[in-house]
Each structure stands twice: as C-alpha cells, then as structure tokens.
Amino acid sequence: MKREIGPNHMKIDALPARTSLATGQMALSIDYDERATMRAWESFLAEDPKCARDPVHPSHVRSLIHESWHRSATGGINAQGIEAPLSSDRDEIEYLTRANAELLSAARRSFASLGQLLDGTGAMLVLADSDGVLIDAIGDKKTLHDGMDIHLAIGGKWNEDAVGTNGIGTALWTGEPTFVHAAEHFCAGIKSWTCAGAPIRDPLDGKIIGVVDLSGYSPIFRPHNTALVAATARQIEKALAEQQQEQRTRLLEAFISSAPSYRRKDGLVIVDHRGRAIFCNNVPDGETTEMMDGPMEPGRGRWLMNLPSSGSDADLIRALPAHLRSCHITPLKLDGDLRGAALVFPSVPAVSSAAVVHREVNKHLQDAVAMIVGESEALQAAIDVACRVARSGSVTSLLVEGETGVGKELFARLVHAGSRRTANDPFIAMNCGAITRDLFGSELFGHVAGAFTGASREGKPGVFELANGGVLSLDEIGELPLEIQPFLLRVLEERVVHRIGDSRGRPVDVRLVASTNRDLKQEIAAGRFRRDLYYRIGAVSITIPPLRERGEDVLLLIEHFNRQITTAAGEDPLEFSREALDALLAYGWPGNVRELKNLIGRLHVLTRGRDVRLRDLPEEITASGSGSEAGSDSSASAHELGGTLVEAKRQAMKNALAAEGGNLSRVALRLGISRPTLYRKLDQYGIRRGFI
C-alpha cells in the first residue's frame, strides 16, 4: 500500500479524519514526506506559533495536523517532550477502572478477539477514557513493552492538553476517526510511532466516553488502520447499547414491582445510575405544560440528577434538584446495588405546582424588566430578546454586547429572574477583567486541596459549581485568556466541570450570560478569542445601545435616578431648568448610564438649593450644548404661547399634576401620552417640575 517515491517519501492512501464510514468514501490519497514534514514542524516552531492565529500551513502537511500543532503550541506543550504523563498510583488506577467499568465491559469481547491476532504484528490496541487516559492495552508483547518508554500504557494521559498531537488526543478533539503518522506528532519523542484512533460515543446521549487506538512503530502504518479502529469503536458502541437496553428493562421491571400505586396519568421518569433519563412517560418536554402520552423519546439521555452512593430515601431526596422536588422518588436496586431511581410526578399536583411557579417567574421577570429604564426602540428590542431567552428552556447561553456603563448586568439578572425555578436559584457574577491570569482556572472551575501552590487546604468550588441550578454572569469575557477558552468551551458543551487536580467530573446545570464591551469578531481576527467559543456563547446575542442613541431615555433616567436618590436620602427632588435638560440631551455620554447616574448623585451633593441650571452642570456637558439661561423664566415661556387653547391645555396639565401628586408616570398615563411626550409638553407650556 505504499510505493517508494524518494528517500523517506511514500504515498499513503488513508481514511480522511472527518470521513464517515457510512458515506462509503473510504480513502483519501495524500503524499507523506518524512523529511518535508519534519522541516515543516521545525519551521512551525521557529516562527513562534503562540503569537499567530490560524497560520498558513504547508500544502504537504494536512490541515488537521497543522491545526493540532497550533493548539499544542498555544497550550504550552513541550515540543521536545519524550513521553506522556503517567499515573502509577494504584488507588487512582483502581478508581479509573471502577469509573469506566461499563466501557471496559463493552470492549472486552472486541479486545479479546483482536488481541490474539495482533501478537507478532508490531501493533498494540489501547482503550482510553474521555480524558485520554489509557485503561486497557493488548497486542504485540514487544510493542507493549516499548510503549512503556513513552508511557503508552495504563495510566498514561494522551489527550492533546497533555502530549500534543497524537491519535488518541486528536481523535478526542475532532470527534472523528483520526490517524497521526510519525513526524506528524507534535512531541519529538513519539515521532517514531504511528497511531490511529476512533472515538467511542455513549449510545444514550452521544457524548464521547472513550477512544480505541491502534499504535506501533511507524512501519506498521496501513491505510486501513483507521477503518479498523472505527469498526472496533462501532462494535463497542453496539455492546454498550445492548448493556444499556438490558439495564433499562431491568430497572423498569424493578419499578413495576416496587410501585403498585403508580397511576397511568402520572408522569414517570426512570434514571440510570448516572442520573440520566432512560425512560420518560407523561412528562412535559421543555416548556410544554401539556402532558404527553407514550414514551417521550426526546427526553432520553438528559441528565437530571446525581445519584448518591447510598439508596436511602433521605439521601435521594437531598440529591434531587430544587425543580424536581415535587416528585416522588423511589430507589431502584439491581443485585443489591443502587442502579437507578424512579421519579413519579402526580398528575394533578404537578400541573398546579407548575402554574404557581409560572406565575412567580412572570412576576420576577416583570420586576427585572422594570429595572431597565428606557422606552427607545433599540433598548426595547434588546429587552424583548432577553425575555425570550429567559423563558426558553433550550437556550443555555446569551451574549450581551455593549459599551462600558450601558447596564449589561441588568440583562443578566433579567435572564435569571425569568428562568428561576425556586427562590434559591443562584445568580453568580464574575468580572473576567478583575481576575489575574494565574487564577482564572481556579476561579472558573475550582480546585481540590493541594492542587497547586497557594491552593486552599479544603479545596474550593468554582463559579460554575456555585451557579449550579441558576445563572452565571461572566462580564468582560473578552479578557478571558486564550489558553483557558478551550476548557470553558468543554464545560459549556458537556455540562460537566472538573476541578483543577481532580479527575472526577461534576455535572452542572448553568445558564451562561456572557457580556463584553469588545468587538469579539475583531478579537477572533486578532487571534485573541476562539471562533468556536464565540459561536457557542453567541448563539443568541443582543446589543445594548449606547445612551447617546437612546434619545429621550436620558430624561427617563434622570427622573429615575433623581427619585431613587431622593427616596434614599429623604430630600426634596432636584428641579432641572429647560436649558439644563437641553444640554443633558445634547451630550454624548461616553460613560453611558453609569456616567449619568454618577452625575445625578453629584448634583444632589453640590447643587445649591434644589434648582439645577446650566451653570451647575460640568463643563464637558455645557460645552456640547448651545442653550442659555438668559430669559429662561418658565412663566415667561408660557406667556409667549398665548391663546385660549394653549391656556386650556396648560391648565389641564396642571390639574393632572395636582391630582397625581406630581408623579409624572401616572400623569402621563392619565393624559394618555408617553413620558417623553409629557416632558416636551411641560417644557412647551413652561410648567416647572421636579422629578418626583
């Protein structure tokens, strides 16, 4: 399958990394030149790839390999490395074996049949978990022995974050069958090897749970190596599906024998030992409040809870998330061990409870919307999108873009208010611009005791764990270091967080609201922000308009902050002259709403008396306007209008002001006009007012 073309140059017909076996496209012809590939690797390292984004790769180096080299270099992998990290701790190996018992069991038949065939071939077959840690290895005895030199053995960690480009780690990254041959490896110490890996997916939810890989010295390369491991991965997935179907049947039988009072109209969810739904009936799908008849297949595979190690009723109830505590939970044991649970939702109480929750959420959402002051069309459009996201059960992230000071955190709180399931659902905010580079991983994901120098003795949860069941607001996400971004993407994709120094995953149910004052598309072009992370967090995005584009929202905000400060301090409200308001409307507000709020607070402290005139405003504001205080007496302005109709309208406004005690919102409602229109009318008719 290879023909000599020149020194160290051979023709390889190989399976492309992203080719599906189902398509029938079984081969892609590429040239592999050992010397040229080595020169390309040396040139790549000499050009300091950490400072470049999406560099142009040589035509004779596959794009898949060159992209992986770039990830390896920017991830800090030592290109002169000679081996992978290896854990030889017996307790840790035992934990890995227990944690991957199902995967090992499903692979046993395939490995047993292939193991005998590989003896004397120079090849070894390995099984790795979802982190790229080897949990089983069979094959040629000499190759297994030589594999120890590079830690290609049980306990060796072979993801890209640990050892750069290789068949196991790159298959995990791409999610497709992948081969990496000789000089294509990133680390110098493993360039004499060839490997082909294929990911193994959980049949229930489609997540990658492991990799099967064929490795050996480079002469064992054959075009069909990738096809072999892909076929083996499919066999393992088929065995997993059979195991899961058997467990599903047994759990249903266990439920039937233990729940004689179950009624047909009740909602029922059976979860497996990982807390994933394996059977659903008569339960709402997403936001649907109507009950569904028959199995709800779309609900299968959804993670619902963490099952405790014990099967006691008290522990099970404590393990239930807050939004599921209206159900009745029954432990399901197989062969004496807790292997699942049944969640029964009584038909009538469940609907009643949902209605109460719906009313409470609507009230919280209305209160959160009321905190965002403004009637401009652009602002209302942003509020509408945020409300839709808050009510949606399928949208798990929102990107809020806008200049500094426009009030982005208010939109994060709006999403929290609209998606609350209980009064205790957390809202956690973190400003990425206020975290030192070294602490980002610990703050986001947490750490276990002694994970690094300076780590707390008890360990610490990260903001994802703290926000579990609620909303996490990441402000200034554009400040997130590039090397942390892949880990954030993985948490968002898998909904599982790993503390630093801990191999155990912790499922999290978090809605993310990311906000930024940067243009993230420009950051992507500059190589400072990952494109895949941008599209993950920005599936739904809103742009909050700057205050200078919101027109008479300035007047509404002046009223709002004036009333807020007046109420808190027990003072009389400030009254603004017409010229002062004109200057405030004409000003550009580079600091946006925050600048306006600070100005109103300053005026309350520094203004002599309660009348605010043009001369009381800062110079940068008065310089931008052309108003003058001369002849500004409002009664004179009113007198100039004249006419009986004008006098009648003026009197009607005075009467409305008197009837509503000066509350301008109620006055506008009474007169059937908007508040901005009311402000204009008051100015037009020369009626002095204080913002009460």
Q: Provide the CATH topology of the largest domain.
A: Beta-Lactamase
Counting DSSP H or I runs of 4 or more residues, the number of helices is: 25
Secondary structure category: alpha+beta
| Poorly predicted parts | 1-29, 286-298, 348-358, 626-643
Cα radius of gyration in angstroms: 32 Å
- What would CATH call the class of the largest domain? Alpha Beta
Shape: elongated
Q: How is the main sheet built?
A: 5 strands, antiparallel
Strand order of the largest sheet: 5-4-8-7-6
- Overall mean confidence score, pLDDT: 80
- CATH A-level architecture of the largest domain: 2-Layer Sandwich
Oligomeric form: single chain
**Distance linking N and C termini:** 86 Å
Number of domains: 5
Question: Explain this structure to me?
Answer:
It holds the Pfam family AAA_lid_14. With 692 residues, the chain is of the alpha+beta class. It folds into five domains: 210 residues, Beta-Lactamase; 75 residues; 188 residues, Rossmann fold; 71 residues, Helicase, Ruva Protein, domain 3 (Orthogonal Bundle); 44 residues, Arc Repressor Mutant, subunit A (Orthogonal Bundle). Helices cover 41% and strands 17% of the residues. It has 25 helices and 23 strands. A five-stranded antiparallel sheet has the order 5-4-8-7-6, sandwiched between helices. Strand 18 and strand 19 form a beta hairpin. Helix 4 packs antiparallel against helix 8, helix 11 packs parallel to helix 12 and helix 18 packs across helix 20. The N terminus is likely disordered.
